[in-house]
User: What shape does this take?
Amino acid sequence: MESEGTIFALSSGRPPAAVAVVRISGSQAGPALRALIGKVPASRRATLAEVRDPASGETLDEGLALWFPAPASATGEDVAELHIHGGRAVIAAVLNALGRLEQCRPAEAGEFTRRAFGNGKLDLTRVEGLADLIAAETDAQRRQAVRQLRGVLGTQAESWRSRLIAALAVVEAGIDFADEGDVPDDLMTGARDAVAGLRADILATLADQRRGERLREGFVVAIAGPPNAGKSSLLNRLARREVAIVSPYAGTTRDVIEVHLDLGGVPVVLLDTAGIRASDDPVEREGVRRAEARAAEADLVLWVVDATVGEGEAKAKADFGGGAATSEGPGEVPSVDAGGGVGKDRVDGAGGVWLVENKVDLARKPSSLTAGSRAKRSTLAVSALTGEGLDGLIAALERFAAEQIGGTEPALVTRERHRAALHETTAALGRALAEPVTGREEIVAEELRLAARALARLVGRVDVEDILDVIFRDFCIGK
Assistant: This one.
């Protein structure tokens, strides 16, 4: 990869800090070190050095210098690092001195990693794993990102691609040497069997209920229900901070409020939505529309009702116009049956709906509103004001989210881009298998080439320039 100049950046956290790492990458990394510390240290050995301003000779700091010559470096280029004291003035002075050197310029976001990708140090799935590791908020996300950074998906994709190329070679041999006497008659049959086995393996990987994407993006739980049921108060309780405005007036929440939580190591995204009801107010109607849309896309909906209202009214709200509350068995999380009501159809999440009766502390008969005594109605009884029942709700959410995201095997596919490339691969393999055994070998070969190209795109071998900017735009400066 032909890089544009030598780049430098602060590669550690925000100052002030005990130690700051300034990284330099490119053909002028060695001369830059000589200009600042008067020498290039021994390869891969930390060396005590005095950092000076090349223009004035003034001592800027004293720290450690490291040298990683190409190609055995993180970026595949010559790389130098200065480990200096992490004060703002020290860092600014060193970066300013580097900026005045010829052919040296500040790095853009993700540029070090982009050079590593361009020089073959990382495939695209590992680059994405690094991005996910930087963004990881929970332990489960960290573990998944580390697997990707280690190249689990990339290695598997290369294995699939090798099998595919081997089958393609057999098909092309049958085309090119069909008249040769030593070419077996059943050549295409063996290739088709190999392609069928490969397609089955990839389809098995895709049949993971999108666990990888769910873990990476967070398990989405929408809090929905009629106005004044206490949805915002419940969100604040679950978030353990004031994130939503609580008001006795219906229609206070107009837009969707999003909160990220770590529940037992599983990332959960809570959505507080507008109260769902008919309204003449155009702004509130838009809030209701957004609430219904986000709830319909959520992995789970908590339908919150006011426990203080009449039992018939509460049940009507919970049933969404015809659904019936049901229990899924002893020890399992309660849910609400699909039912078929019109309102229910608009907000039913992918993982179903749980009925949550709030304000049990204000109910006329509190003893009759506990989850245990109302087991036949399958409700979760809570009080967002006092915290009653919240521990049970949180435990149920943790358990359900872990079941939905977890599994016996860690997910290989963690992004929609991965899934799209693999679907494209299996589609091409399916078309190849649909062709006759003989007479259409050229078409079969072309479909196998398309499948191989899709796998190559997955790891970044071909046609990825259009997505690189999207991937790297969220990287930190200095990575």
About this structure: DSSP finds 16 helices and 14 strands in the chain. The first strand starts at residue 6 and ends at 10. The mean pLDDT is 80. The chain has three domains: 6-119, 126-208+413-460, 214-405.
